[in-house]
Amino acid sequence: MIDSGNTAFVLISSALVAIMTPGLAFFYGGLVKSKHVLTIMMQSFIAMGLVTVLWAVGTFSLAFGSDVGGGFIGNLDHFMMQGVGMEPSTVYGTTIPFAAFFVFQMMFAIITPALITGAFTERMNFKSYLVFLTLWSVLVYAPLAHWVWGGGFLAKMGAIDFAGGTVVHISAGMAALAAVFVLGKRKNTEQLPHNVTHVALGVGLLWFGWYGFNAGSALAANGQAAMAFLNTDIAASVCMVTWLLLSWTFDKRPSMVGALTGAVAGLVAITPAAGYVEPSSALIIGICAAVFCFSAIKFRTAMGWDDALDVWGCHGVGGIVGSLLTGVFAAQSIGGYSGLIEGNTAQFMANVQATGIAIVFGFVMTAVILGALKLCMKVTVDTEAEEQGLDIALHGEEAYVFFEERSFSISPELQRAKKKMTEQATGVR
Fold first, then answer.
1. I want to staple 38 with a disulfide (CB 3.0 to 4.6 A). Which of 62, 305, 350, 391 is the partner?
2. Coil, helix or strand for 216?
3. CA atoms of 345 and 302, how far apart (whole Å)
């Protein structure tokens, strides 16, 4: 039977998750050079369109259809949204319309591949990105979502992931690392944020949306959702403060970008545990996320890996920390599962195995996809386009056009209007 309160809650949560992808666009956009900002923002926004089409046509069915191949993938019962309507499912979200469940899960499918783009910023052709986005959604996201949330073999093995530690963050983080190795380095690997205010805006939107991301995964307006909301805020907050102290200690300054990155790392790490652990455990998870993700980024820098926006260090490592600690701290009284601290070794080992499988699958499949694309098309941009800026080279647009004369992007009429404005401002004729 449909519960109107649960339905409203899930729809609102879906809207909160939807705003995370524009938030990601601002977060990543502020971190890159100004001549590449539109390109990376476009990669996030176009995911909202293309992944929605894929989800409606078939990837939802692959993720949440009945088992095929012993729990490896879903069938095509819901191809072209067949059976997705106003009545509740007998399996997923049994008190909300199946359409509401469809929409909520779609928002996860949208943001996950968009997360990967931070690793290959300034490198990938837009056409190649669209092909990659399609293949990765079908071949990586849909199977992994089925394994964990669709009743697949990881779920049958006993692994738990409340809101996406394995499905979203480990998969995206390991995909990012694979992209770094397959696509190679940029010519200029210096990474100075061009607009920290955009970074702050992006993190604010992500943090705001994450409450829907985690609390909404309860699929009901109940106590578990409330605990997930509380745990999300605690982990993000303590991770941000811990990261600030770490950056202040090791880098000799209280970095704004560092603190914001810490908040995101905390949000990532609590995601698989949000509805399964006590708030005191969420605090520990936040501290661990700061230590391990901060260390991972330092390690990545020392190794010279060109993960431009540290997707692996933040999302990959954060997801690993969260998934493993979910198996440690899961509390029967919160989400119905007992972890290692309550004496359930089997739960911990199931999460260890699921974490390892997600790591290997996300990395290997992404490497295969990108390797195959390199054989079929030009995946990376040339040095000239990188130096010019991908905004102009690929899209013919600029994020910031001031009053300088640029005949290739400003019409004669606009040039005359700008000249008149300058004359009026300076009094020069």
1. 391
2. helix
3. 36
Q: How many residues does the chain have?
A: 429
Say if residues 81 and 56 touch (Cβ distance below 8 Å): yes
**Coil, strand or helix at 397:** coil
Q: Which two tokens stand for residue 260?
A: 């914001």
The conformation of residue 197, written as its DSSP 8-state character, comes to H
Task: Walk me through the domains of the chain, giving residue ranges and CATH numbers.
Answer: 4-384 (1.10.3430.10), 402-429 (no CATH)
Q: What is the rounded CA–CA span in Å between residue 275 and residue 344?
A: 18
Average pLDDT, the chain: 94
The answer to whether residues 270 and 214 touch, using CB atoms and an 8 Å cutoff, is: yes
Amino acid at site 381: V
Tokens in use for 335?
Answer: 């989400």
Which tens digits make up the pLDDT trace of 83-92?
999 999 999 9
Residue 408, pLDDT above cutoff 80 = no
- What distances in angstroms separate CA 306 from CA 190, 191, 243, 300, one per listed residue? 10, 10, 22, 8
CA distance 240 to 200: 13
Q: Per DSSP, what are the bridge partners of residue 68? A: 73
What is the pLDDT, as a whole number, of residue 421? 52
- pTM, two decimals, is 0.92
Q: Rounded to an integer, what distance in angstroms lies between the CA atom of residue 71 and that of residue 313?
A: 30
Determine the average pLDDT of the residues in 124-134: 97
Taking the CA of residue 75 as centre, how many other CA atoms within 13 Å lie in the half-sphere pointing to its CB?
A: 7
pLDDT at 190: 83
Question: Is the pLDDT at 18 greater than 90, yes or no?
Answer: yes
Say how far apart CA 57 and CA 291 lie, in whole Å.
41
The closest alpha carbon to 189, from 247, 257, 121, belongs to 121
Question: With bands split at pLDDT 50, 70 and 90, how would you rate the model's confidence at 424?
Answer: low
Phi and psi at 68, nearest 5°, equal -130, 135
Are 370 and 183 a contacting pair, CB within 8 Å?
A: yes
pLDDT at residue 36 greater than cutoff 60: yes
What is d(CA 194, CA 31) in angstroms, rounded to the nearest whole number? 6
Separation CA 118–CA 398 (nearest Å): 19
DSSP state of 380: B
The DSSP secondary structure of 120-165, one letter per residue, reads STTTB-HHHHHHHHHHHIIIIIHHHHHHHHSS-HHHHHT---SSSI
